[in-house]
Automatic annotation (TrEMBL):
One of its GO terms (molecular function) is efflux transmembrane transporter activity. PANTHER family: OUTER MEMBRANE CATION EFFLUX PROTEIN. Belongs to the outer membrane factor (OMF) (TC 1.B.17) family. It holds the Pfam family OEP. InterPro entries: MdtP/NodT-like (IPR010131), OMP_efflux (IPR003423). Gene3D superfamilies: Outer membrane efflux proteins (OEP) (2.20.200.10). This is Outer membrane efflux protein. SUPFAM superfamilies: Outer membrane efflux proteins (OEP). Signal peptide: none annotated.
Length: 217
């Protein structure tokens, strides 16, 4: 989007420059021109020649007959500048809206990831309690088996949420044209911050370091 903003700025600057070129033509102008041709022809009885030729010619330009055409041309250039100003403002507003939407998406994703991370912790603690209770003889193996799917489901949900947050983060960086700070391997970033989520993701992605969100549709 920055490319569109820069183009709009250049178009606005060019339209404004056209006003500066068109409006002076509405007013009278004076052109001064002249020449001096010194002559050093030596005359009899004199030491050297003197100044013999010079000319001075002022020119006054009055836009009497072309006034209507020049005024129309100036009005056209002013209208063009106004249009380019509106185009520039709309381009900037559109860019700001895109960044705002991307920021909202990333913020919403972060809240979702935080909630799912807490859910993963809860299910893991529940599973650990079930295993401990089974070892102590206070519950059956069925209770342990019932707790395991909850852990897997919560980890898968967290993985999807992290994946969506990463995709929206890429979209945000594309909107503001900033370089990603993940380094060359985004998987390293997620493996450090979300190990449980990465464990539930496709292992081919972890090995290759090419996440499925590398291309934003």
């Amino acid at each position: 989007m920055n490319d569109y903003i820069r183009k709009a700025e250049r178009d606005l600057a060019a339209a404004t420059a056209n006003i500066g070129a068109a409006e002076p033509q509405l007013y009278p102008s004076i052109t001064l021109s002249g020449s001096i041709s010194p002559s050093f022809i030596k005359q009899a009885g004199s030491a050297a020649g003197g100044l013999t030729t010079w000319s001075f010619r002022p020119t006054l330009n009055l836009p009497i007959f072309d006034g209507g055409r020049l005024r129309a041309n100036a009005e056209i250039t002013r209208s063009g500048a106004k249009v380019q100003s509106l185009v520039w403002k709309q381009t900037v507003l559109t860019a700001l809206e895109e960044v705002g939407r991307a920021l909202s998406s990333v913020h919403r994703d972060a809240q979702t990831v935080q909630a799912l991370r807490a859910q993963v912790t809860t299910t893991q603690e529940t599973l650990a309690l079930s295993i401990g209770s089974y070892k102590d003889g206070h519950s059956s193996l069925l209770d342990v088996l019932d707790a395991q799917p909850s852990v897997a489901t919560s980890q898968a949900s967290l993985a999807q949420a992290v994946q969506q947050m990463a995709k929206d983060y890429v979209a945000l960086n594309m909107a503001i044209r900033l370089q990603l700070r993940w380094g060359r391997d985004p998987a390293n970033f997620l493996m450090k911050t979300e190990p449980h989520a990465v464990a539930a993701m496709d292992k081919r992605w972890i090995i290759s370091g090419s996440p499925p969100f590398s291309r934003v549709s």
